[in-house]
Amino acid sequence: MSRLAMPSDQLIRFVLDPEGRVVPDLRRRLPGRGVWVTARREMVDAAERKRLFARGFKTAVTVEPGLADRVAGLLEDGAVQALSFARKAGEIVAGFTKVEAAIAKGGVAGVLQAREAAEDGRAAALRRRHGRSDAVPIVRIFRSEQLDLALGRTNVIHAALLAGRASENVMERVAALARFLGEDGPVGVGDGDLGIGPGHDLNQIDGPTSELPEVPEKMRRDRARDPQD
């Protein structure tokens, strides 16, 4: 079990409920001892499979099957809810023509395309025209029905996030979801800036730090001998 320190936005905190079940604490507000795991699906799966939560909490725990799926669902719900807040804040326009106009005008935080738009000619046109290194991010992590729900209309395929705090929150939620799922999420500019990339195995008890400490030589030798540790 690694003790590497990482920024808290790249970690997920887990706590125990009164029945001793492991539950995710995405807002980091629930009381009690917390165990922090790298915010990637495979890391949560590994922690469940290798029974690392019992080691971290130093007590017997119950991990109900499908923990990583529940985390993904919570992250997805949070991203869709953030879209709804952005709509209420007036920071979203929908429809291909309005998206094109918003991009031309400037001040767009991101472009939303439903996953179903992958084979759509207009989606390809957007990627050709606005998928350059100096373009806004293109997000295609949501299904059309999710965009419909968040924007309060039907058959949403293209939308644009206008610059503003609500839109920034959407992009932060999208980055967290894409990072957890191991998907590209936003494409165009911002892939690296949004922190989407491989994480480190981690199981840390509360208080994550923002700096990565140097790993002592002896610890590196020990890990080389026992890669499962």
The biggest beta sheet reads: 5 strands, mixed
Q: Might you state the CATH topology name of the domain at 86-187? A: 60s Ribosomal Protein L30, Chain: A
Shape summary? elongated
CATH architectural label of the domain at 86-187: 2-Layer Sandwich
Percent helix, as a range, is 25-40%
**Highest CATH level, the class of the domain at 86-187:** Alpha Beta
**Low-confidence runs of at least 5 consecutive residues:** 185-229
Share of residues in strands: 5-15%
Name the helix and strand elements from N-terminus to C-terminus, one letter apiece: EEEHHHEHEHEHEHEEH
Task: Please give a structural write-up.
Mean pLDDT is 77; it is low at 185-229. The chain has a domain at 86-187: 60s Ribosomal Protein L30, Chain: A. The N and C termini lie close together (5 Å). The radius of gyration is 20 Å and the shape is elongated. It has helices at residues 41-49, 52-57, 67-88, 96-105, 121-130, 144-151, 165-181, 217-225; strands at residues 11-16, 22-24, 35-38, 92-94, 108-113, 138-139, 158-162, 186-187, 203-205. The chain has a five-stranded mixed β-sheet, with helices on both faces. It has a four-stranded antiparallel β-sheet with strand order 2-1-3-9. It is 40% helix and 15% strand. The chain is built from eight helices and nine strands.
